[in-house]
Amino acid sequence: MICSMVAIPGRLSEWCEALMVRLLGATGAAPAHILANGLGDLGREILAADRLRALVVARQPELPLCRSLIATGRPLLVVLDEPARAVRMLMTDNGLAYAEATRFVANCLASFVPLLGARNALVLRAAADLSEFATARRIADHFEFGVDDETLRGLARDATRAADAWSALRIDELGEFEASRTAPPPAAMFEDVPLIGGRGLAAHEAVLGPVWKHLNGAAPSETIWPPSLFYVGDAPSRPATEPVDVTGVSRCLIFGPYIRLPEGAWSCSVVLASTPGAVGMRMVAEVIAGVSLNRVDFEVAEAGIFEVEISFVHANPDLPIEVRLFNAEAAFEGEIAIGQVRMTPLAARRLAVA
Q1: pLDDT band per the 50, 70, 90 thresholds, residue 181
Q2: What local confidence, expressed as pLDDT, does residue 2 receive?
Q3: pLDDT range class, residue 46, cuts 50, 70, 90
Q4: 26, 29, 73, 253: which has the highest count of C-beta atoms within 10 A?
């Protein structure tokens, strides 16, 4: 028996994995625990496993794997832990920097979009008003595990102890879910992303909020990527949060953020700022996902803040998006800074005819 789940990293995900391993183990030999995001990885892991029972877990499932999980019609568990909590956990438990944790969770969220509306999927959300036992019962019934209530309560409690789990699920009268024992959110999570003509947003809200809302039933909306997710071409390990000196030969000045987007037509709006020394310089902005999707050549007309827009069609959601900014000619002085990059889904709209 092979059971599959896709899950945003988080306490709820850890608990669900621990429970699924125990449910599978209760029906026979201990199962293999397979982490795979693609069909190729999954095939290799299954062939290498020496057991007939397995729990397959995907964090960033590729589109062919998503389609296969839907096409089989077999029970699937989708775990949507709140993204800000996932970022915090990756930082506090796994030691990831804020930008890397945010990028990882953003790619998880985008990869879940093809699974929206799958009839064979049980979707668990961390904000659901369910107790530990009620959650375990829903999972067991969905996968048709014939487990009685007493046994299931024991498995659920064992999973909680094993995973040291907590979630936003309501603590029931038995106190089965413990409160969070993690440290407070790192200060980086409250970095402001200034919006032109509007209020600022917390960085994780700007990057993760739109896709999270889409996964919870809202229409696709604009995503904002802050400078902290981009890198400096001359120093690839340094975030592009400060102005970049353009002095020198033609080269890549700024690049990033390597974040997945759902397939479709998009508009990429790059907000830049320049010093007087950069006025007159020819530049190139390019959107890349494996190959170049579109590019715009432009000239810095005056000092200050300006915006460059690039439209493109994204056909392969498994490939992360990269935005690159080049100076197209040698420069003797000047600085360029990236303010934010807005990704807006494009759709044809019917016009009212009088």
Answers
A1: very low
A2: 86
A3: confident
A4: 253
* Stated pTM of the model: 0.84
Pairing of the two strands 32-35 and 54-58: parallel
Q: Specify the pairing of strand 2-7 against strand 54-58.
A: parallel
3-class DSSP assignment, residue 151: helix
Sign of the torsion angle spanned by Cα atoms 259, 323, 270, 296: negative
Over pLDDT 90: what percentage of the chain?
52
How far is it, in rounded angstroms, from Cα 101 to Cα 89? 9
Q: Round the average pLDDT of the chain to a whole number and report it.
A: 84
Of 257, 206, 211, 226, give the one whose Cα is nearest residue 103. Answer: 257
Q: Which residue has the tokens 């909590």?
A: 85
Q: Which of 3-12, 97-106, 172-181 has the lowest mean pLDDT?
A: 172-181
- Residue given tokens 């900014």 in the structure block: 325
Query: Residue 91 belongs to what H/E stretch?
Result: helix 83-94
Residues contacting residue 223 through CB under 8 Å, at least 6 positions apart: 206, 207, 210, 211, 261, 342, 343, 344
What does the DSSP 8-state code read for residue 201?
E
| Structure-token match 């389609």, residue found | 67
User: Which has the closest alpha carbon to 140: 74, 77, 80, 69?
Assistant: 77
2, β-bridge pairs:
54
For 125, phi then psi, to 5°, come to: -115, 140
What are the DSSP calls for 253-276, one per residue? EEEEEEE---SEEEEEEEEEEE-G
